[in-house]
Amino acid sequence: AQIQRFVDHRPAQVGIDQQYPGALLRQHDGGIAQPLAMLGAEAPLRFVVIGGKAPAIPNVDVVELPWQENTEVELINTFDVGIMPLPDDDWARGKCAFKLIQYMACGVPVVASQVGANVDVVDADCGLLARTPETWAQSLRTLRDDSGLRRRMGEAAGGVRKQYLELLQDTLHKVYLEILEKEITRAFVYSYEEQA
Predict the structure, then answer these.
(1) pTM of the predicted model as reported, rounded to 2 decimal places
(2) Are 153 and 124 in contact, with CB atoms under 8 Å apart?
């Protein structure tokens, strides 16, 4: 069966923006190397890593680019799919999904580990969640082979990003008010104790 390619018959471009050099892929690749190798054996595939080292992956053109604030958005806009692979551990469950939100802000569909905040940010309209190497491969294959789905997910991503940022804003506002209330109460109690 003929496998459809990504845009303009160029190699599929899967990207990850680490921003902190080597932070993710050197410590743990989140199970992404094996699925990428499988897809690379099926059709040309380019894996772009911004701001870090990447493992050599059979059948995959791995490109490492330095992270720079002034080129980050431009580079993300070249991705066909943005990924956020994470291990399922306490550290990953405590991470926010900022990279996913950045991809979505650029209209890039996402595939992410089904861990922590990723679950709250990614829904079926804007991306796919993966837990195993097989689900990673299937999710990336689905987006590789369906340009219409990639386009629809990219368009929907902006709305999800807006909802998440509004939720984050509401949460930060509540936390700020709680801190302010505690500080006012503490100052009042301190002042009262000094007068007594």
Answers:
(1) 0.72
(2) no
